[in-house]
Amino acid sequence: MSNDISKIKLKKISAELFKPFGDLLALKDAPDLIINHGMCERHHNLATIEFDKGGKPGISLFNAEPRKLPYTLKMMERHPKGSQAFIPMYEQPFLVIVAIDEGGKPARPNAFLTEPNVGINFHKNIWHGVLTPLHSPGIFAVFDRIATDTNLEEYWFKNPYTIF
Fold it and tell me: What is the pLDDT of residues 87-144, one digit of tens each?
C-alpha cells in the first residue's frame, strides 16, 4: 500500500458530510421552542436513536486520553444493535473517524474534526474509530444501548491509516 493511499486528510465536520454515518448534535439555525419563561432555546430531535430489543437506553460518562495528530488508525468498531451518541463535556473539538460497510468490513475511512460544543451520534451498525479527544480533559456523556449481550464488532487493518 502506498503512502498516499494510507493517508487520510482531516476535514471539518458538517451535518451534510456526516449524514451517511449519523447525526451532528449542534444548535440549529433557529430553536424549535423558547421555554423557561423565554430564558431557554430548545433545539430538539437532533438525532435518530436506535436500540434493538434486549437493551435499554443509558447515559454513561467516558474519560478518554487525548491523542495527537498525526493519528494512526489501526482499528475500527461498530455496534450492530444500537446507535451511540458522544457529547463532549468541555468546549473542545475532537476527532471523528467513520466508514461505510463494504462486505462486512469498513471501506476507506473518513476523518472529521468537530467544532467546540458539538456532539455526534453514530447510527446503528456504522464503522467508527474509538473515542478520540485531542485535548484534555477527554470527558464525554455517551448515550447508547445498555445490555449484557454482545454489541461490538472490531476490524483491525492490515495496513494502518494516518490521519493528518
Answer: 999 999 999 999 999 999 999 999 999 999 999 999 999 999 999 999 999 999 999 9
For position 114, which CATH number holds?
2.60.120.480
DSSP assigned state of 105: S
With contact defined as beta carbons under 8 Å apart, do 136 and 41 qualify? no
The amino acid present at 139, given as its one-letter code, is I
Q: 8: domain range?
A: 3-163
Note whether 129 and 41 are within 8 A (CB). Answer: no
Opening angle at CA 53, ends 51 and 139, nearest 5: 35
The count of domains in the chain is: 1
What pLDDT, on the 0 to 100 scale, is given for residue 1? 44
Q: State the amino acid at position 121 in one-letter form.
A: N
